Amino acid sequence: MSTHVRHPIWLPALKAADARTFASLYAVESFARATVSSVIPIQAYEILHNEQIVSILYTVVAMLGLSVTLFMPMLIRRFARRWVYTAGACLLAIGSLFFVTDTLAGQLAGMLCRVMGASALSITLNLYIMDHIRKTDFMQAESLRMAWSMLAWTGGPTLGIFLYTRFGIYAAHGVVAVFAMALLALFWTYRLGDNSSIRPGKTRPVNPLANIGRFIAQPRLRLAWLIAFGRSCFWTTFFVYGPLFMVITGEGKLAGGLLVSAGNALLFMAIFWGKAGKRFGGRRTMTFAYFAMSATLLAAGFVGETVPLLTGAFLLCGAFFTIALDALGSTAFMRSVRSYERSQMAAVYRTYLDFSELTPPLVYSVVLVFFGLGSVFVTLGLLAAVCGFVTWRYLPKSL
User: Fold this and answer.
1) Residue 5 in this model has a pLDDT that exceeds 70
2) CA dihedral of 264, 266, 267, 270, whole degrees rounded to 10
3) What is the CB neighbour count within 10 angstroms for residue 209?
4) Rounded to an integer, what distance in angstroms lies between the CA atom of residue 267 and that of residue 263?
5) How many angstroms separate the CA atoms of 373 and 157, rounded?
6) Cα 11 from chain centre
7) pTM confidence score
């Protein structure tokens, strides 16, 4: 019928979102976060002059960020995903303004903005991915996303340290604002918010506590959370205590930045791990990665401060195996979550990152009272071994 004719408009001419779309967004976002990933802990240490208090600072920030993450579904429902994503990018830029004050209050506010911005970007991007990528393609799409972020996580930390030590605090954090604005421009170019399949649902909002209960009631989601938590704990430790370890042992700030950059340079291996997962199965590959990570961390802990560069080499080996979990781990969640509760469950799932930023510094602050800095890596190695056993025991072979 003539009344049912849809006249063409320019929006349908846009290329449909695919794995490359989300890989490019994540790559630019990674530049905004990676550039100061090594600067922030060093800056905090220069303000506080105590690694144990630095751990407490990270714990406080993670606790505050956790509450924001749990309420993210309500924000998405109220303001739509595109605006929550936009707010996340803006928070990264706002955080840089707080950091340049070079005060404890500014450090706390900047770290909190960074955590909230990362939470908003992570949850909304995952929802977009689940809407546009088929379940059978999740493993390949995630490995591509990790690989594309390699340049950011490789060059970013060293670039940040170079700018911080050579040109000062304004240069280091100013770059973050530039990348955050570039991310916004790219996101709105893709116009993901105009896709009808990703508009907020019309069901009644669910209480965040009820979302947690619903999540915990599903064994597959609990397992997916633990897998993500374990590998995220490694990166929290690597980014914070890796640079601190190099500074405290006398290797210098630049060595800390180079260590983080070298670990992130291994992200290109995400493509390899994606193929390994497809060839040998996600369960076998992730179990192997966890046990191998545990072994390298225990070795790093036992060497400790006696040979700092060897300890750094063991940490790099741990990063190599952790990238397998980056490439494959999120598929356990994406294949298990029900489509009608993606937003609510994605927010609870995302708490693995908040807890991985909260729990390790809290535990390490206690461990460091009794043992040296190498004990941090031993503690993490024991956690990795537990995660490896649980993954081998309970993750379905069909994954």
Assistant:
1) no
2) -160
3) 9
4) 8
5) 22
6) 32
7) 0.73
Q: 17-195+208-394, which class in CATH?
A: mainly alpha
What pLDDT shows up at residue 399?
64
Instruction: Return the amino acid letter for 294.
Output: S
Phi, psi of 188 (to 5 degrees): -75, -20
Distances (CA, A) of 263 to 10, 248, 288, 360, 389: 43, 19, 19, 19, 25
Q: Would you call 218 exposed, middle or buried from its count of C-beta atoms within 10 A (0-12, 13-18, 19+)?
A: middle
**Other beta carbons within 10 Å of 10:** 6
Stated as kind and residue range, the H or E segment containing 281 is none
Residue 5: other Cβ atoms inside 10 A: 6
Residue 372 tokens read as 């040296």
Give 116-138 as a DSSP string.
Answer: HHHHHHHHHHHHHHHHHS-GGGH
- pLDDT tens for each residue of 243-283: 888 888 888 777 887 887 788 788 878 888 888 888 888 88
129-159 b/e with 16+ CB inside 10 Å = b?
Answer: bbebbeeeebbbbbbbbbbbbbbbbbbbbbb
d(CA 124, CA 319): 26
Q: Give the position of tokens 């830029």.
A: 93
Give the number of other Cβ atoms within 10 Å of residue 390's Cβ: 17
Give per-residue pLDDT as tens, 12-62.
Answer: 445 667 778 888 898 899 899 988 887 888 888 888 887 778 878 887 887
